[in-house]
Amino acid sequence: MVSSQILVGGDGTEATLEDGGLRLVDRSARTEIPLAVVREARTTGGQHVEIVLTDSAVHRVDGGNPTAATAFVAALTAALPARRDPAGSARVTVTPPAPPEEAEEVKYHPKYRRRQVVILGLFLAYVGYTIWVGVARGGEEVVLPVAAAIPLAIGAALSFFAVHVTLVHFALKRRGITVPASFDFKTKDGAAWYKFTDADGVERSGRGKNRGPVTRVSYDPEDPRDHSFDLSDGSTLRRVLPFALGALPLLAGGAFLALLPFLPV
Fold it and tell me: Cβ distance 172 to 231 under 8 Å?
């Protein structure tokens, strides 16, 4: 049985070894190579991996790192069949990337409209409060609510994220649909992106930790943009807690500054 491996290059290339053969993906094309037409695989110090076909054609991919490149070459070499096909490149399939589809109008879930209304309402209310401070306490006091707007805005943003993650967690627990997700690519910051297909047949992608070539994802059928690769309570708490703890002192300090014109000195 072939040991499935994915070699992710620093230049964004991806080489996948599976039972069906070898798949190379880069920005320009998708190349499918049957293992029967591979003569050998080699690496040059781990910087690159070269796949030599039986007709002497060479496909070269970025090695990512020496350890990964060496392991990939070893796995590919072990997977090569005893009998090879001399056809080489004649059996290689190269598929150019699909032309970009015409952008569809983004459909917003009603909750995003509601959030926009709430944010706008809070902003206008705070502007009104700032004006009222200037009228009631004098123009020099306006600097306090203006300065308070910075920690209040940052604290509100952190709180919003914490609340959003919590609501998504409970929504997925209540009505989430779980489907398999396959590894798509890895970004330079180490995050892995997976692609999955929802119940409507729409292919979507999500960012998460590297969980191997195939994992599972739960998404909200009412808004598939809300999804999670780990629905455990502990995972959600670890994501929410830092933002909640960071928001509290900012909100408290901002509220104190904003109300200072009316507090007894």
Answer: yes
The dihedral of CA 84, 20, 8, 88: what is its sign? positive
Burial class of 116 by CB neighbour count within 10 A (0 to 12, 13 to 18, 19+):
exposed
Distance CA 209, CA 212 (A): 9
Angle between helices 143-175 and 110-137 (to 10 degrees): 160
Cα distances from 213 to residues 149, 156, 158, 170, 184, in angstroms, run 45, 37, 33, 27, 8
- As a whole number of Å, the CA-based R_g of the chain is 27
| % the chain with pLDDT above 70 | 93
3-state secondary structure at position 25:
strand
Closest CA relative to residue 235, chosen from 251, 211, 204, 214: 211
Write the CA distances from 199 to 170, 194, 222, 252, integer angstroms.
20, 17, 11, 44
Q: What is the mean pLDDT of the chain?
A: 86
**Do 60 and 90 touch, CB atoms closer than 8 A?**
no
Determine contact, residues 179/196, Cβ cutoff 8 Å: yes
56-96 tens-digit pLDDT? 999 998 887 888 889 889 999 999 999 999 999 999 999 88
